[in-house]
Amino acid sequence: MKKVVILTILVWTMISATFSQSSIENNVGRQKPTYRQRWNVGFSFGFTGSWWSGGKSDFIQAVASDLGNENIVIAFDNRPRISVNASILVSCYLKNWLQLQSELTYLNMGQCFSGDGYMLYEEYYGNYQRFDFFMRMKMKVNYLQIPLLLKVITKEGFYVAAGPHLAITTHGKIKVTVKADGDSERNSEKMPGISPFNYGFNVGIGYQKKGIGVDLRFVSDLKDTFRKGSNDFNLKNKMLQISLCLFPGEMD
Hints:
- The structure is a single chain.
- 15% of the residues lie in helices and 62% in strands.
- It is α+β, with helices and mostly antiparallel strands.
- The protein is elongated and about 80 Å long.
């Protein structure tokens, strides 16, 4: 049995060497190969703007209701969470114009809420004073995302890309900042009820030439950010992402 295994390995090694040598000999003297380098490894980094879709208005009202009573009033607005991303890229040219690309990406997603409010406190019996404040809440949910994209590339280097992704939740945190009378107070705690994984799709456009590219992408999760029963607002991650991509193997 061992002899058969050793013989098989030797035969496979000789076949691989033969094909490699043949490929080298066939490419001698060619100035422009039919295909580019088939496999490439690169990396990217950039900026993201993320937000939640779904029952976001109901969620804001619920938070305000939890904070409020007859003496506290606050109204929240929402804005995207601006952050960064970083990726390791592995691409394979199926054709001169068609590329399959897999990525391992670290993403910061979530949503930001902010608003002005006031609190009425009783200085002494029957006499209330108004205390104005500003509150900002950052809902941070970070992921390790694995997209698989199919890219259609033109001769000029422009491309469109689309494909699914799987995301693993690394951690979630709520960061609250309250400002009043020139002072500020910050507090943070772990965000409860986050789903341990997510999935969705990516679509984008970009430009890539000689190993350097710019990628603009829309990312949408199809699964709720929170586990069922912990949050009934059907909040889902959405994101716009712009990245600088580098493939050292394609650089002249």
